[in-house]
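Listing 4. Sequential folding, example run.
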Amino acid sequence: MKQFSIAIHGGAGTLVKGMMTPELEAKYKTHLEKALTIGYDVLKQGGSSLDAVEKAVVELENSHLFNAGKGSVFTANGSHEMDASIMEGKELQAGAVSLVTGIKNPVQLARCIMEQSGHVFMAGNGAMEYAKSLGFKLEAPEYFFDELRYNQWQEIKDSETFQLDHSLKKDSKFGTVGAVACDSKGTVAAATSTGGMTNKRFGRVGDSPMVGAGTYANNNTCAVSCTGSGEYFIRGVVAYDVSCLMEYKGLSLAEAAHEVINNRVLKLGGDGGLIAVDAQGNIAMPFNTEGMYRACQTSLGNKDISIYR
């Protein structure tokens, strides 16, 4: 049996160290560990990497601490527009959804799109219609209300400003969530979910639901889930870029991930990080921000839960 492993993230960019209380740090790490354990247990029981990343992301979406699902930020009109994607590396099947509201776990809808619709990407009203046709229950707006998120929005409401959660201008920094995994059969998978930008307008979509930009999986190379300044990650096709460097230049997972996050994205002007795993179960979690909410565990007994460098 091959080594299996999983990594998760709760966003790049963190509370400035001086403002992170021991109690708050413990709370983040507890939620990260819970999601990690849920995903790892799937792999330990011989389950698929696809199931592992979906279940781990669902757990993160169910926490108000992260900008996805329940903790999604407010848009300019006071609603919540969520995006998610999922991909497996054996057949390169993928599903993605964008601009949905009221969906408790967008990653589950993304998987349904992948497996049941014959399509890859659905958005907006059409995606909502599809979700309803599958029997997805819509949560009331109150489910997604979080006081911190609301206060973030109030600070810039009615302005032309939009706010990335991990921007250095803010001390309230939380972000996209994601997971990558390699199962005992050597199949990799990735999933990413987000609530986007505070005060975003005009149906803005970031990299998270875009296959190749925010999420990618290929058994020949790796699985990747990104978090950061989405516009730059889209322009850099970041998730696929890691895979390309491995496939065409022969770089290792660690080398490729480092090159993309600490060189290529920075040259574009973007910041953030990613988590990645290859078909041998190796893990890379580079970031160029002050920190990244992250955790990983392997069948060799390695386990790590971290926020700062």
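-- end of first protein; second protein begins --
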Amino acid sequence: MQKKRLIIGMTGATGAIYGVRMLQVLQAQEEWETHLIISDAGVVNLTHELDMKRSELAELADVTHGIKDIAASISSGGFKTEGMIIAPCSMKTLAAVAHGFGDNLISRAADVVLKERRRLVLMPRETPLNLIHIRNMAAVAEAGGIIFPPMPAFYSKSDSLLAMVNETVGRALDMFGVNVEGLYKPWEGM
């Protein structure tokens, strides 16, 4: 049985926990194969925010690609994936994706996902937003990408930071058909 492939990109914005948690959830599911790319700034945040090393992160992924490896399998549309999530997504990466500037494997893989009409989800982490950020988000959305800021929903009355992260991660992964049962409780009305 061919596994479904999902690319996870992690960049230098705050919020490394989102990418880590996605990899943990996907690692527990046999039908998914993850392809990880992390930028150098992403590694800095991973270390600062979670006291985690690049090697520990790599253990959560099925395949890890170097940020400069633009000849990697995921840089070609012929390599079939379900799509890509960039979590967290820096404003630099957002700009690169918005303008088709494939200068590294994260932005190149995102460009491939868009050109192949696969699902691309960007989780930008910045506030407040300036007009350049907003226009770049609009450009990505117009190209078919999904802008998914990791904003907690308070109606779920989460009792911990992990529960808020799980809800965001669950909602994002659900967009790809990942089994997220037990990760969060979807809104069912009052």
